[in-house]
Design brief:
binds zinc ion, elongated, about 50% helix, alpha/beta, four-stranded antiparallel β-sheet
């Protein structure tokens, strides 16, 4: 049949195929056609596969071929109104050849359009798509003539009025000598599911949006869940602590967080809360050392109107506000004797009274306490109640100091760089190798808080698109003496000699610049308070003095 007519004559090609070079149009009947480089199509194919993956690219190309075949079928019907559908059907292969795609010859055709029967087998010689695929990707393990299959399906289905699925039994793209295709109604194939899936458009944009939402939600729930924000690390010490926190989170037990100042106790407390069944209730934090001794009781337990001069309003304390949730008591070692007694009662009975009130109130609060003093020693010295200590010390978690988490320093720097570059609107390129080295060797008396402050300072000082360097991080150090002073600071834990040297350097330096003793003292006091994040007890410990002594000196200076 197909060989019985000349496609050029049937299509009246001399009159219907218009090559209008002057107007940049090639027309077949009223349809605008394109003369494309097969190589350009090859590039598109590569791009599709690279961006969408091979399965999605195959789908896109198959559907493109289908659309093309369907249009050709419509065109053929229009141009050959007197021809039977069976004959129009056989024009498809000729058109496919005419368009330069592939040379098609029928092997077997058993077709009855009226009854919907279709069984066809065709030989494809010199497939352009197999060529293009092999050129870019080599021999494939499956057939590769996806647009061509799409075309065959599109053309045939349009004429048949039902979906006819073609498959490549052989394909030059997978190493066969030529391509050979077989077509049958979709239902007549046993395992057509995968082939059929290429004809269904998948809305990648929707899926991308959905995935993007999922990522956002995950990121949110991660941050939220762990409140881990700045809690990053991979060191064993850090991972062990996280493990312990997770285990503690599942119970209602009181947790006691131990560790030096600045190790991130509040962050751990928040993480514990978010991992616990109370995550959706309040997390209330209070730093006992930051509140004057005479006010701590009213802060914790609330106050009734008229309880004392100045108590003009009744107000709930932190325990009431944390009802159903978690209360974090930082610096619990600083509590007054009266507050300690009241705290013990809440822990034992779950009840208390507001100051100046007779009504007993009940609360359901999970307590997390933290301290950087040796509570056992405080007990021995009579400053802390032994019974309260045992109540608090049921599930102690020691948070390692930063100097034992050297492996985490780089991650923490990355985190803080991102955080403060955003906050201060800077573009920072990172940190220099010497600066990173210096930070890894530093002894970190102020722990993570000190590192965070240092990185923030570096971000503020460094120019846009620059890397943070040693002088940005240690600006107090005289440049000429940087090396020796740095070494001294770095080796604080390593022995007394470098520290002695650097101290001597510092004193030499101060005397050379006629620095007064008062200035030096002021600088030490201020720096200690800054490093302790305003916590006078910690600052006093750094300076080797008591909190009242430090408070007195600061007051005197002001
Ligand atoms: Zn092929």
């Amino acid at each position: 049949m197909a060989g019985e007519f000349d496609i050029g004559e049937v299509f009246h090609l001399p009159s219907n195929l218009k090559l209008n070079f002057e107007y940049g149009r090639i027309g077949l009947d009223k349809h605008r056609m394109l003369l494309l480089h097969a190589g350009a199509f090859g590039s598109l194919r590569v791009e599709l596969i690279d961006t969408l993956g091979i399965e999605r690219a195959r789908g896109v190309l198959t559907r493109m071929g289908y659309a093309s075949g369907k249009r050709d079928a419509e065109l053929a019907r229009k141009l050959m109104p007197t021809m039977s559908d069976e004959d129009v059907l056989m024009v498809g292969p000729r058109l496919h050849s005419l368009e330069g795609i592939v040379r098609v010859s029928p092997i077997r055709t058993d077709i009855d359009i009226a009854s919907g029967h279709f069984d066809g087998e065709f030989l494809w010689e010199d497939s352009f798509e197999a060529d293009v695929h092999k050129e870019h990707f080599g021999i494939h393990h499956e057939s590769v003539c996806w647009t061509q299959i799409g075309y065959a399906c599109g053309y045939t289905s349009e004429i048949m009025g039902k979906f006819i699925l073609f498959r490549e039994a052989d394909c030059a793209g997978k190493g066969d000598r030529q391509c050979r295709i077989v077509g049958k109604p979709a239902d007549d194939w046993d395992d057509a599911e995968r082939d059929l899936s290429y004809f269904k458009p998948d809305h990648l944009a929707d899926q991308l949006l959905k995935l993007q939402n999922e990522v956002e939600n995950l990121r949110y729930s991660l941050d939220d869940h762990f409140a881990l924000g700045d809690m990053v690390g991979r060191s064993q010490a850090f991972l062990d602590t996280c493990d312990l926190l997770r285990k503690g989170a599942n119970s209602h037990v009181t947790v006691l967080l131990l560790g030096e100042t600045g190790v991130g106790k509040e962050m751990c407390a928040r993480a514990l809360h978010s991992l616990s069944p109370r995550a959706n209730s309040a997390f209330v934090a209070i730093n006992c050392a930051a509140i004057p001794e005479e006010l701590i009781e009213s802060e914790l337990f609330g106050v009734e109107k008229g309880a004392y001069t100045g108590a003009q309003q009744s107000r709930p304390g932190r325990f009431e506000r944390a009802h159903g949730g978690t209360l974090f008591l930082d610096e619990v070692g600083e509590l007054s004797a009266a507050a300690q007694a009241k705290l013990l009662r809440v822990l034992q009975e779950g009840e208390f009274e507001r100051i100046g009130d007779t009504q007993t109130r009940k609360v359901d609060v999970r307590l997390i306490a933290a301290t950087n003093v040796d509570l056992q020693q405080a007990v021995n010295e009579g400053r802390f109640r032994a019974d309260l200590y045992y109540r608090l010390n049921i599930f102690p978690v020691l948070i390692p100091p930063l100097r034992e988490r050297v492996d985490d320093i780089e991650l923490l720097i990355e985190r803080f760089l991102g955080k403060y570059a955003t906050r201060h609107g800077k573009r920072v390129s990172g940190i220099t190798v010497p600066a990173l080295d210096a930070l890894k060797k530093y002894s970190w008396p102020g722990n993570i808080r000190e590192l965070e402050n240092m990185i923030e300072r570096g971000v503020i000082i460094v120019g846009n698109d620059q890397r943070i360097d040693v002088p940005h991080l240690f600006p107090c150090v005289n440049i000429g003496r940087r090396e020796s002073a740095m070494t001294g600071a770095i080796d604080l834990s390593g022995g007394s000699s470098p520290k002695g040297d650097s101290l001597r350097d510092m004193v030499d330096n101060a005397l050379e610049q006629s620095t007064s003793f008062e200035e030096l003292e002021a600088l030490m006091l201020e720096t200690a308070v800054e490093r302790a994040g305003g916590n006078l007890s910690s600052a006093a410990r750094m300076l080797g003095m008591t909190r009242p002594q430090l408070a007195y000196r600061l007051k005197k200076r002001n």
